[in-house]
Design a protein that fits this description.
Blueprint lengths: L12 E2 L2 E12 L4 E10 L4 E5 H6 L6 H12 L3 E2 L2 E8 L2 E2 L5 E2 L2 E6 L4 E5 H5 L19 E3 L2
Antiparallel strand pairs: 1-2, 2-3, 3-4, 5-6, 6-9, 7-8, 9-10, 10-11
Length: 147
């Protein structure tokens, strides 16, 4: 097993995170694997504790708040056909039974209507302004929200 000075990573930057201090070695999961945990400061000022391995692999590069903002900025304002994403209604999640539920976006159509569309339907271009008479898939269902 390799050993290293736990303080040697203090000050290193990984994405938006800068290592502030070593916290502890912690057993993660049921595999009995022990990982070095570090406190990091995000550019936004938040502090998180994360395994060094996750930082080095690039799995963690920012705090939860920054990750959420990055996710929103990735979608809000994007156009899909005649629809423009204006907000996120529901984030993707797994329910208690393990079933995956796709994210749902609130979009404004060029005709002025506001509709909620599952992200998979936007990405697959199955929706392109249903309320403009340009229905791409008659079996497709949308939740309509009045302005």
């Amino acid at each position: 097993m390799r050993t290293f000075d736990v303080d040697s990573f203090v000050g290193h930057k990984f994405g938006k995170l800068t290592i502030v201090r070593y916290v502890e070695n912690k057993e993660i999961g049921n595999h009995g694997k022990t990982l070095a945990m570090y406190e990091c400061e995000c550019e936004c000022g938040n502090h998180i504790i994360v395994p060094l391995q996750y930082l080095k692999s690039g799995n963690v590069t920012m705090c939860k708040d920054c990750k959420e903002k990055a996710y929103e900025s990735k979608w809000i304002g994007r156009r899909f056909g005649t629809l423009t994403v204006i907000s996120i209604v529901q984030k993707a999640y797994y329910d208690d039974s393990g079933k995956f539920h796709n994210a749902k976006m609130r979009c404004k159509c060029d005709c002025g209507k506001i509709i909620d569309v599952y992200i998979g339907n936007l990405k697959n271009k199955k929706t392109c302004g249903v309320h403009c008479g340009m229905r791409a898939d008659k079996s497709h269902k949308l939740d309509i929200v009045e302005v």
